[in-house]
Amino acid sequence: MPTRHDTAYDVLDSRPITTREAPALTVTVTDVTGRRIDERVGGVEGPRAARGHDRMRHPPARRAQPGARHRPAGAAVVVRAVGEVDAATAPVLAAGLRTGRAAARPPWPLVVDLTGLRFLSAAGLTALAATLRRCDEHRVPLRVVAARRDVLRPLRLTGLDALLDIRATLAEALGPGAGPR
């Protein structure tokens, strides 16, 4: 999606001013069958909370009842990010990663699909590093799917590529070796 530019005019000079619309980021959390996972799993708030919804008007959801909108046992959780991750959109990515981590159960992996990203900032790298730490604490394998230079380069420059299990395609991340080791 190209960035939209709007033209405004300075009231004092009548010269055109170009303003840039903020980059967009969409994060979805699904199981391997494509069914969405609730935005609140195990007491962890998901992407909706990061968008600034008022907690007074929108009280926290209750925990899901057994058998209600849960993923099948023995399946990976996939977090897909599409758009650009910068300081403004990193909280949305971080919330999606927290939701995915809360839904993932060892020994099945949490797969973070970054193939739809056009830009990954330091704030996004921080969210990935925090998720890696939480996954290690809970013994959940973390796999990152990235193929674009725009995403791989920051991972390489920071050395995060040495810590993460990076795969080229989602099929590779979910295929053999995606299950228990």
Brief overview:
The chain is 29% helix and 27% strand.
Folded structure, characterized:
By secondary structure, the protein is α/β, with parallel strands linked by helices. Helices cover 29% and strands 27% of the residues. It is built from 6 helices and 9 strands, in the order E-E-E-E-E-H-E-H-E-H-E-H-H-E-H. It has helices at 47-50, 90-103, 122-137, 149-158, 160-163, 170-174; strands at residues 5-9, 16-20, 25-31, 40-41, 44-45, 77-85, 110-120, 142-145, 165-167. A 5-stranded mixed sheet has the order 3-6-7-8-9. The protein has a two-stranded antiparallel ribbon with strand order 1-2. The longest helix has 16 residues, at 122-137. The protein is globular, with a radius of gyration of 18 Å. The relative contact order is 0.15. Residues 1-10 and 40-72 have low confidence and may be disordered.
Give me the number of helical elements.
6
Label the structural class: alpha/beta
Strand order of the largest sheet: 3-6-7-8-9
- The averaged pLDDT comes out at 77
Family: Belongs to the anti-sigma-factor antagonist family.
Region (Disordered): 44-69
Protein name: Anti-sigma factor antagonist
GO molecular function: anti-sigma factor antagonist activity
